[in-house]
Amino acid sequence: MWVMVLDSKGEAADAISRAQAAAEVECSRKQRVLHNDNGGEFIAAEFMSYYADEGIQHHYSGEVVVTTIYILNRSPTKALDGRTPYEAWHGCKPVVSHLWVFGCLTFAKELGHISKLNDRSIPGVFIGYAEGSKAYRILDPKTQRVCMARDIVFDEGRGWAWDKVVDHGSASTYDDFTIEYVHFEGARGVGGCSLRMLENRNLSCEIQVPVTCSAADALKLLDQIIQAARVVYMDELELYFAGDNVGPFSARNELESLNLLFKTMKKLLLTSNAAAKEVLQILQDEIVVKLKSVGKSDDAWMVVQTQNHDAEDSLLKWGEHLGVKSKLQIAFFQGAGRGMVACESIGVGDIALEIPESLIISDELLCQSEVFLALKDFNNITSETMLLLWSMRERYNLASKFKPYFDTLPANFNTGLSFGIDTLAALEGTLLFDEIMQSKQHLRQQYDELFPLLCTDFPEIFRKDVCAWDNFLWACELWYSNSMMIVLSSAKLSTCLIPVAGLLNHSVSPHILNYGRVDEATKSLKFPLSRPCDAGEQCFLSYGKHPGSHLVTFYGFLPRGDNPYDVTPLDLDTSADDEDGTAQSVTTSQTTQMVRGTWLSRSGGFPTYGLPQPLLSHLRAALGCDIGESTTEADIKENDKVVLETILSIFNPMLEVLPEQDDSNRESASWDVKLSLDYKDLQRKIMSSIVTSCTSALEKF
C-alpha cells in the first residue's frame, strides 16, 4: 500500500503514473485495473487518454464502498446483539434473497428485435443495488457505463475476463467453453470420499468442451460429465455400496445428477455464442432423453380405477379458489389409492403444482389457534405435539378454514402403526417388528402424558370424546404419512401439512424430487419436475430416502421396484483377539456395516462377490485375512473362504426364521396381513441373495 500526498487534484495523473511504474517494477506484472471514486480529476481527458494508452480498465471504487455498506447494513453484528443495522433502524428483518456475489458476471436481457442466432443477453459485471427499486447496477466493461436492470442472469462462479479484452473494447472469442457444474445451484460440493473417488476414476468437475466437436464427441464427453456428477451427488449409502461401479447408483442419484447438468446447460445456453449453443443444445437434448428413461418401468404398472372422488375434486376447487395452481388432476389407482396424473405433458423444471403459503399448515398457523394460547406455557409441550392436538380438534371443526382438506382425509390411514396383534406376532424377529413396536410404545407413552390431564385442565378445548386414543393415533398417522419438511418464507424449517400435495404418491424414481422451500417472491411452495411427465401419466413425489420398514410403519406401503435404501445393518464386533488374548482394535472408515440385495451389485465375482467392499475389508481385517501385495493366490482363496463362511454363519440363521410363505390365502387376507407378508418376502429375498452369493463363490474355490 502506498500513500502519496498531493498539493492539488491536478497532480493526480502524474502521481498515478509514478505509482504504477514503481508497482510494475517491484512485482514484474502489468497493471490491468485502476479503481477510483469517479471524481472529476479521474475522468478528465488527460486521464482517459492515459487509460487507453496503458490498456488499463477504469473501475469506480465508489461502487465498492456503497455496496459494502449495503451488505453490512444487512449483516448481523455483535454491537446489536446479533441483529442487523437494518433491523435496528426499520424494526423488521431485511430481505436478503436478492443478494449476489459482487463483481460476478451478469447477462441482462437484450430488448428489441433479434434473430434466432443472435445473443439474447448483454454481458456485464454486477457492482451494486439500485436505490429505491429492485433493480441492479451493472457495469458494461466495453463502454464503462453503469446501467440499472431487473431481468438479469447472474453467474456467480465467473467474473469478467479483463485480460481477454482488446484495446478497442471488444471481447475476445473463445475456442471452447467450460462446464464446471459442481458450483451451480443444487450441488452439495465435493467431500473427501467423493473427491478421492473422482481422482481414482480420473474424473473432474470441470470439463472443457470444444465448440468445434462433433455430436458423437460431445456425447462421449457427456458420459464423462454424467459419471462425475453421479459421484458429486452420492450419499453415504451409495458411497458404501459403490465399489468400482460407475453408476447409475440409484434412480435418485441419477435424477439429481442429470438435473444438475440440465440446469447447467440451460444457464450456459443463455450466455454462450452461437457456436457453443449448438453443442450445448445437443448435450441438453440428450440429458432430457436420459431423464425420460429414468423410472419408465415405474410409470406403467399402476392401473387407473373408476371411482367417485367428489371430495377430492372439491378440494382442488377450494385450493384453486385460494390460489393453488395445478397441472395435475386426481385419479385412483389399483393397489395405491389416490394419486395425481398430469393434465398435460410437463417438462423438466416446469412447475406441476404451486401451493400458496397461506394454505400450508405449520406451527406459524398454530400461533393463531386456541390450542396454542392454552398450551404455550404448559409443561413445555412442543409445537409438533400442539399440531397433533390441533389436528384432532380441527378434524371435527365444521367452521374450519381447512374443512375441504380434512374431508378428503381417510378415516383410517392403514399404516404399520395400526397393525393388529396377529400381524405383529408374524413379524417378530424382523426389523419392521422392532420399528413398529418402538414407535407404538413411544406414542402410547406420549398419549398417557397428555390425557386425561388436558381434558381436566381445559375441558372446553379438549373434549373427552375428541381426545380418545384412536383419534390421537389418527392424528399421528396423518402427520407421519402426509407431512413435509419445508423452509417457510420466514426462513424457518417446519414440519408442515400441504393440502393437495399430500395426494401425490411416492416412488423410488419420482418426478418431483426437490420442493422444500417457499418462494419468497411469490410466497408459494412450488413443485418442479425433475423428469418429464407425459399427459395422463401418474406424477410421483419423493417421500425421502427410506427403507421398506420405515415406509410400512409410517406410510403403509412398500414401493414398487428396487429400493436401494432397503439395507440390513449388521452389529459386528469391531475387535479381534490377538494370540495372547488381548483385543486388537480394527480401524475402518465405516463404523456401521450393512448389506442389501446382491442383485443391486454389478460385481458378482472376486474380490467382492456382490457384497459391499467396506464389509469385506472389515471382516478380512477382523479375521486376520488381509490381502497384501505378497499374498499368494492360494492364500487369498483360503482367506476369502474364511470370510465367506463367516458371512454365511450370520445370514443362514436369519434366513431360517423367514420361511417360504403360504400364498393360498393371501388374496383374502386383511390389508395388514398382506403388507406384512410382502415385507417378509422382501426380507427373505435379500437374505437369500446374500447366502446364494456366498455359497456360489465357495463352490468355485
Structural features, described:
There is one protein chain. The protein is α+β, with helices and mostly antiparallel strands and 701 residues long. The chain has 4 domains: 96 residues, no CATH class; 119 residues, no CATH class; 251 residues, Alpha-Beta Complex (set domain protein methyltransferase, domain 1), CATH 3.90.1410.10; 132 residues, no CATH class. 40% of the residues lie in helices and 15% in strands. The strands form 9 sheets. A 5-stranded antiparallel β-sheet has the order 6-5-4-3-7. Strands 11-14-19-18 form a 4-stranded antiparallel β-sheet, with no helix packed on it.
Topology, element by element:
Blueprint: H1 12-27, E1 33-36, H2 45-54, E2 57-60, H3 61-72, H4 85-90, E3 104-109, E4 121-129, E5 136-140, E6 145-149, E7 152-159, E8 176-180, H5 192-200, E9 206-210, H6 215-232, H7 236-242, H8 251-271, H9 274-293, H10 296-300, E10 304-305, H11 310-321, E11 325-326, E12 328-333, E13 337-342, E14 351-356, H12 363-366, H13 370-375, H14 383-394, H15 403-408, H16 421-427, H17 431-450, H18 453-457, H19 469-482, E15 483-487, E16 493-497, E17 505-506, E18 518-519, E19 524-528, E20 540-541, H20 548-554, E21 568-570, E22 575-577, E23 583-585, E24 593-595, H21 613-622, H22 633-656, H23 671-699
Parallel strand pairs: 1-2, 17-20
Antiparallel strand pairs: 3-4, 3-7, 4-5, 5-6, 8-9, 10-12, 11-14, 12-13, 14-19, 15-16, 18-19, 21-24, 22-23
Helix pairs in contact: 6-8, 6-9, 8-9, 14-19, 16-23, 17-20, 22-23
